[in-house]
Design brief:
130 residues, alpha+beta, 2,3-Dihydroxybiphenyl 1,2-Dioxygenase, domain 1, Signal recognition particle alu RNA binding heterodimer, srp9/1, 2 domains, nine-stranded mixed beta sheet, 2 helices
Length: 130
């Protein structure tokens, strides 16, 4: 995961094109690429995540990822305030425990807790500048 606390997640129909364009036009540098469906770009001490997205799916094109200390407690709090859970709490091979929720206005948020320090190449990512 990028070291940032708040990470915008942007969907693009052509991920390789987005990586190239954002790098050349705006000066982002590739931090990590996960096959053809996800990438992390960095600039200074900030990061963004790019996801591949089929525009015909009508899915959201952006969301926000937030790193938290205790994702299970955070999940319970979100439920208590009426958040709609889109993806349940899940442990991922890349060392994160995450869930995704929709807020009262329809914005999508993913909350993530680091649970293991895993080398990205061990689960198939291509490492750029860390």
């Amino acid at each position: 995961m990028p070291p940032c606390s708040v990470i915008p997640v942007l969907g693009y129909p052509d991920l390789p094109e987005a990586i190239d364009w954002l790098s050349r036009a705006f000066g982002f540098a590739l931090r990590l690429r996960i096959a053809d469906h996800r990438a992390q770009l960095k600039m200074g001490d900030g990061c963004i995540v790019l996801t591949g997205r089929d525009p015909s799916e009508g899915a959201y094109s952006c969301s926000v990822m937030v790193r938290v200390e205790e994702v299970d407690l955070h999940h319970e709090r979100a439920l208590a305030f009426g958040a709609r859970i889109l993806s349940p709490r899940t442990n991922h091979v890349y060392g994160e425990r995450q869930y995704t929720a929709e807020d009262f206005a329809g914005h999508v948020w993913t909350f993530s807790q680091s649970i293991a320090d895993v080398n990205p190449e061990d689960w198939g990512a291509t490492v750029g500048e860390l």
